[in-house]
UniProtKB/TrEMBL annotation:
Gene3D superfamilies documented for this protein: 1.10.8.50, MutM-like, N-terminal
Compositionally biased residues, Basic and acidic residues: 298-311, 373-387
The protein's name in its UniProt record: Formamidopyrimidine-DNA glycosylase catalytic domain-containing protein
Keywords: DNA damage, DNA repair, DNA-binding, Glycosidase, Hydrolase, Lyase, Multifunctional enzyme
CDD domains in alphabetical order: PF_Nei_N
Family: Belongs to the FPG family.
Organism superkingdom: Eukaryota
PROSITE patterns linked: FPG_CAT (PS51068)
Domain Formamidopyrimidine-DNA glycosylase catalytic: 2-133
Spans annotated as Disordered: 291-397
Catalytic activity: Hydrolysis of DNA containing ring-opened 7-methylguanine residues, releasing 2,6-diamino-4-hydroxy-5-(N-methyl)formamidopyrimidine
A Pfam family it matches: Fapy_DNA_glyco
InterPro entries, per database record: FPG_cat, FPG_N, H2TH_FPG, Ribosomal_uS13-like_H2TH
Length: 397
């Protein structure tokens, strides 16, 4: 997904090829999602840009826009797979092993295409295969774009807004929320531009575990996190997301083989990295470096599970059997012990499978009624008495 560095790359190409030029041809294909979801249309887009001069190109995090000679101005977001192609220019931020060359224009999955009036003519096209991008028009003066929705709802850009994104500002933001730090970084309402891979790189550089609660970080950790955000984001922006220029010890260089056979599981220094899910997103973590220094949500859940487990184990311990006296009270005691278990369970937990199965049977099948048991016991006692009398009589003879 294009993040702060990748968007900076496209803004650079727009400034290079379109800024200062008039758009002579504007074509758009209506898409109910890309245009329609944000109240725009292909017709409105064409009308708003045709014949206008591009005065500038800017960005705030993952959003970017072109400032036109008069309102409205196009504001764009790439989503997961959106991108801008410039004809006869390689804009891709990564180089596939087997690049497929094509002279097709407009390119496949295009949503709008532009052509400048000036020679040499420049052509650009917005593409998106999965239709998760968004294209809208902002009707205000160019200098006010960041003061209206949706940009006004988003947090500061750590590179563009360095005067806002200070160490003190970050510390206050972290302290005001109790969420996993990775989730906080990914929420654009807090900070603009940080996506999944940037968030992981930042936390690895700062030696902070992604699951740790944001409000548990020490002052030293906040200071280091601020430095790491500026370093990783700054490097990505300065190098226009050209991954070939990224340091070899970055996670970015080694993390992309998840689930693939013989994929890397260690960094060049030997540190092992693993993957876990934080805030619904896959996170790449180096456990030997990113230690938990405070409670996290998973720890609390695990503690609760352990308590439940201990209680269950205690309940499952077999009850002590009562001593059966040898006196005439033996029958009564056995009857008391063999009473059906109420509600078919043993304090809520079956002690073993046999008892659980027996407990689920109707009480009438578990034992005979007390009255019948007493009659049978009385008969048995009479029979035993007669036998004893017979034996004693035999001995007497």
């Amino acid at each position: 997904m294009p993040e702060i560095g990748e968007v900076a790359r496209i803004v650079n190409y727009l400034q290079k090829h379109l800024v200062g030029k008039t758009l002579a041809v504007v074509k758009a294909q209506h898409d109910d999602i890309i245009f329609g979801k944000v109240g725009c249309s292909a017709e409105a887009f064409e009308k708003a840009l045709t014949g206008k001069k591009v005065m500038g190109a800017r960005q705030q995090g993952k959003y970017f826009w072109m400032e036109m000679s008069s309102p409205p101005h196009p504001l764009m977001h790439f989503g997961m797979t959106g991108w801008m192609n410039i004809r006869d220019e390689e804009t891709a931020y990564y180089k596939p092993d087997n690049p497929k060359t094509t002279n097709e224009w407009p390119p496949k999955f295009w949503k709008f295409a532009l052509q400048t009036a000036e020679e040499p003519k420049a052509e650009a096209a917005f593409v998106d295969k999965r239709r998760l991008a968004r294209i809208r028009l902002i009707d205000c003066v160019a200098s006010e774009i960041r003061k209206v929705s949706p940009l006004v709802q988003n947090g500061p850009d750590p590179i563009v807004d360095k005067e806002i994104f200070t160490e003190d500002w970050l510390g206050a933001k972290l302290a005001s929320k109790k969420v996993p730090i990775k989730a906080l970084l990914l929420d654009q309402v807090n900070i603009s531009g940080i996506g999944n891979w940037v968030g992981d790189e930042v936390l690895y550089n700062a030696r902070i575990h992604p699951e740790q609660y944001s409000n548990t970080l020490s002052l030293e950790q906040v200071k280091q996190l601020h430095k790491s955000i500026q370093y990783v984001c700054g490097f990505a922006v300065d190098n226009l997301a050209d991954s070939s220029k990224f340091p070899e010890d970055w996670l970015f260089k080694h993390r992309w083989g998840k689930g693939k056979k013989d994929s890397a599981t260690k960094l060049p220094n030997g540190d092992k990295f693993v993957f876990l899910t934080v805030g619904g997103r896959t996170s790449c973590v180096v456990p030997s470096v990113q230690k938990k220094t405070g409670p996290v949500a998973k720890d609390v859940e695990n503690e609760a599970e352990e308590n439940v487990k201990s209680e269950s184990e205690e309940e499952e311990k077999p009850a002590k059997r009562k001593r059966v006296p040898k006196s005439k009270d033996r029958k009564r005691t056995i009857d008391e012990e063999s009473e059906p278990v109420e509600n078919g369970d043993f304090n809520g937990v079956a002690h073993n499978e046999d008892e659980a199965e027996q407990a689920s049977k109707p009480a009438s099948k578990k034992r005979k009624s007390n009255g019948k048991a007493k009659i049978e016991d009385a008969k048995a006692m009479k029979i035993n008495d007669r036998r004893r009398s017979t034996r004693m009589s035999g001995k007497g003879l």
